Amino acid sequence: MSGADLRCDRCESVISDDDLRCPICNLTTPVSRSADRTGAVVDILRCSGCGAAMTYQVAKRAAACAFCGSVLEVELPADPMEEAEGRLPFTVDSATARQAFATWLGSLGWFRPGDLRSSARLQTIQPLRWVGWVFDAHAEVSWAADTDADARRSEWAPHSGRNEFVYDDVVIPATRGLTREEVAQLLPSYDLASIAETTDLVADATIEQFDIPRSTARARVVEAVNRLARRRLEERHLPGRRVRNLRMSTILRGLEARRVTFPAWVLAYRYKDRLFRTVLSGQDEGCLKGEAPYSIPRIAAVIAGGVTVIALLILLGILL
Fold this sequence. Notes:
Elements: H1 31-34, E1 44-47, E2 53-54, E3 72-75, E4 86-87, H2 94-105, H3 116-119, E5 121-147, E6 157-173, H4 180-186, E7 206-207, H5 214-237, E8 243-271, E9 274-281, E10 288-290, H6 296-319
């Protein structure tokens, strides 16, 4: 979004430059705000493997996807491309990321190959910025449900109410290059207050693009607000211990979403004939999500040992 002063006169939600109506309450924007608005259309590179949208970096000659290494293909989007408004800086450098990766390899436990740390070969280490929305919102939620509170002779009793919730700095991932599990692992490691920081340890990170249409993006934000409201109602505000037939209606006011990039290191390593990926937070070297092989002989040995113990116990029981 550009221009923090562009807000809806009715619900106070932020309005983008080329919005003709408020995306939340549908109020028509003034002509003075909606005139002469255009969006830039840019060429992007689409990964043929994971679908992430990237930009070509001439200095790095990056023609492969920073997420999965697949070939990038040129795409000409018909809709204007969104651009990030803020970024979280890298506080973990390349050397620290390498050391954290080596430590992680040696801490995976007995069920991994014994030579994993010594035999694994790091193929690539790539700094990148994946994308997401950070939003604030005020939600007025009206609800009705059946619960076991005050049910008396019946198993269920009807209840209804209205609650107001305020959400600050809620993150909704927009990345296509990272999995849900990887994003869930990384999110707690980020300091959202660092968006305003000017110092950054990495200047040449690959930046993922916001390639989701604006209408879809807003729908995701609204869905997230509804999901959070439902969870908060069920955990804190609904009477009783059991709930069924929960219905709710949400009115949003003052919704403001920022497009932000989040720092991460993507490391690809090879063990024997297989390639594995590991993702490390760009702000916490202890936050890491990776793939690693298992040792089939070790797992088989444990299973065989368990079967032997069970057989011995059965035999002792028969003898006794």
